[in-house]
């Protein structure tokens, strides 16, 4: 029933169908959906819906819902929460500015499409994101990616980020990952800063994989460096003051990049000099006889409990 010039949800569909295709029509509202007994797939892309429909009558069977290319500006949380069997939700190309973080579909939802929406903040899906494998947020106004967002997406396998305003990614080595994650940042331009260096380190260590050619990065002098030509050791970052201060971080991680231990007569000044020489060093400690150089993450430092003072590089 696609491309049939329909302006309302048809009421003459047999109630035993499993798939309803209403793509490319002019349906603007849905008063109610018939009580289909076995409906698994509802596709209503390319219509003029202005609100997320109430699908309570098919919530026990609906697994696939495509509402892309409509005019939906917001989603009532209850309407999404009731779709407890939903596996695939496509909302791309809608003027949405947020997605409700509800637990309803969290056990089943593995694909969420939010590309070309009005999102300007990376969604923190503390409930909805626990089983998502693929996340599309390309073509949005998002400009920053908080590291915390990926901790709420422990099963994320693929994320589409291109055509956003993102200029750097956090140290994704330190997310709580069960497997490697692929990132599509095709044709994006990042800043040649320490987060870009971490991204190179992460790909080398197989924690992160590029789904396409990696992004270029622009140095402080304006030179654009292609991904394949970028060398961690060749580029030096300038312009940020590197001051040190004492701290006791509650959570640190020593596996990406691997910690480096320098057996020297170590004072904080000596360890600081070693840390400054390594672009991947953001955190160091000393017990007076040697330094441990590493970066800040989300594991625990039980094995390093004899280090009382930790120093973080300000600006890194």
Automatic annotation (TrEMBL):
InterPro entries (alphabetical): KCNMA1_auxiliary, Leu-rich_rpt, LRR_dom_sf
Cellular location(s): Cell membrane
One GO cellular component term: plasma membrane
Predominant subcellular localization, coarse grouping: membrane
Q: Which GO terms describe its biological process?
A: monoatomic ion transmembrane transport
Q: Which UniProt keywords are listed?
A: Cell membrane, Disulfide bond, Ion channel, Ion transport, Membrane, Signal, Transmembrane, Transmembrane helix, Transport
What the entry lists under Gene3D superfamilies is as follows: Ribonuclease Inhibitor (3.80.10.10)
The keyword Membrane appears for this protein = yes
Q: What's the superkingdom here? A: Eukaryota
Q: How does it sit in the membrane?
A: Single-pass membrane protein
Q: What is this protein called?
A: Uncharacterized protein
């Amino acid at each position: 029933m696609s491309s049939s010039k329909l302006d309302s949800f048809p009421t003459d569909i047999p109630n035993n169908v499993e798939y309803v295709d209403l793509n490319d029509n002019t349906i603007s509202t849905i008063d109610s959906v018939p009580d289909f007994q076995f409906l698994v797939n509802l596709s209503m892309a390319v219509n003029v819906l202005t609100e997320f429909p109430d699908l309570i009558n098919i919530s026990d069977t609906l697994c696939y819902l495509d509402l892309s290319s409509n005019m939906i500006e917001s989603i009532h949380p209850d309407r999404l929460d009731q779709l407890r069997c939903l596996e695939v939700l496509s909302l791309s190309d809608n003027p949405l500015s947020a997605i409700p973080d509800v637990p309803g579909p969290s056990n089943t939802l593995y694909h969420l499409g939010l590309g070309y929406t009005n999102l300007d903040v990376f969604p923190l899906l503390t409930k909805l994101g626990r089983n998502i494998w693929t996340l599309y947020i390309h073509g949005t106004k998002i400009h920053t990616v908080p590291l915390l967002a990926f901790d709420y997406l422990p099963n994320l396998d693929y994320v589409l980020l291109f055509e956003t305003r993102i200029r750097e990614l956090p140290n994704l080595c330190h997310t709580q990952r069960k497997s490697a994650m692929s990132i599509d940042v095709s044709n994006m331009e990042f800043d040649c800063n320490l987060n870009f260096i971490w991204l190179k380190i992460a790909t080398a260590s197989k924690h992160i994989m590029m789904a396409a050619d990696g992004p270029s990065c622009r140095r402080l002098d304006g030179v654009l460096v292609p991904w394949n030509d970028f060398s961690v050791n060749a580029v030096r970052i300038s312009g940020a003051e590197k001051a040190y201060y004492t701290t006791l971080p509650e959570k640190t991680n020593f596996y990406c990049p691997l910690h480096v231990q320098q057996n020297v007569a170590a004072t904080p000044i000596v360890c600081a000099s070693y840390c400054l020489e390594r672009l991947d060093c953001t955190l160091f400690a000393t017990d007076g006889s040697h330094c441990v150089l590493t970066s800040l993450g989300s594991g625990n430092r039980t094995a390093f409990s004899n280090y009382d003072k930790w120093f973080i590089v300000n600006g890194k």
